[in-house]
Amino acid sequence: VVMQARYSGLLEAVAIRRLGYEHHLLQDDFRVQFARLLQNNNDTHDNNNDMIIKQVMLKVGVEQNTPEQEKDSFKIGNAKVFFDGSTFDKLHKSLGEYMAATQIRARFLAYMQKRIFLNKKNCCLKVQKLYRWHVWWEERKTASAIANRAVRGFLARLRVRRIRLELASATKIQCVYRGVVGRRVARRMRLELASA
């Protein structure tokens, strides 16, 4: 198989490809895939793909013209962007780090929102519990006040009835006593009139 690849020119094509730009993307695909690496995405809304590509490359740490390199790390064509292997790897590494950071941030924010929600929920439940306890206590207080009022009224009526019975008996005793005394006085007066 190695002999076939060598004689067919496949290995030479791979070597030439490595010397050139191995990877290429359409500018619109590049923009969709890598423009999220820019912190300020307001600049990505204009239609200047060249500016977006250059900003992304600067963000990744790749410059177009470096004197120590024989060729540029990337080239911007009319419709495509061409990269060498190391630049393409840097782009994908940066994109992976950005996506990981985004997921971590999203999960952290979700965790914080969940904590805030549970805190508010617990506070609401505590307020609801205290309110229900207050209502129950007020009803109980009202019920006990009604029961106390009924018991006190009953005891007062019993006392009044006893007092009335005592007054009635005292009145009866007075009445009988006065009748006895009156009859004695009347008998004496009759005797005095008869003897006189």
Description:
- With 196 residues, the protein is mainly alpha-helical.
- Helices cover 76% and strands 6% of the residues.
- The protein has helices at residues 2-8, 10-19, 27-34, 49-60, 85-195, and strands at residues 23-26, 74-76, 80-83.
- β2 (74-76) and β3 (80-83) form a beta hairpin.
- α3 crosses α4 (49-60).
Helicity, in percent? over 70%
Approximately how much beta-strand content do the residues carry? 5-15%
| Total helical elements | 5
Mean pLDDT comes to: 85
The strands making up the biggest β-sheet line up spatially as: 1-3-2
Contiguous runs where pLDDT drops below 50 for at least 5 residues: none
Shape: rod-shaped
Biggest β-sheet, characterized? 3 strands, antiparallel
Q: Between the first and last Cα atoms, what is the distance in angstroms?
A: 177 Å
C-alpha-based Rg, rounded: 55 Å
Could you spell the SSE succession in H and E letters?
A: HHEHHEEH
Q: Briefly note the structural class of the backbone.
A: mainly alpha
Instruction: Report the strand count.
Output: 3
Quick structural overview:
The chain has about 200 residues and is mainly α.
Question: Topology, please?
Answer:
Elements: H1 2-8, H2 10-19, E1 23-26, H3 27-34, H4 49-60, E2 74-76, E3 80-83, H5 85-195
Antiparallel strand pairs: 1-3, 2-3
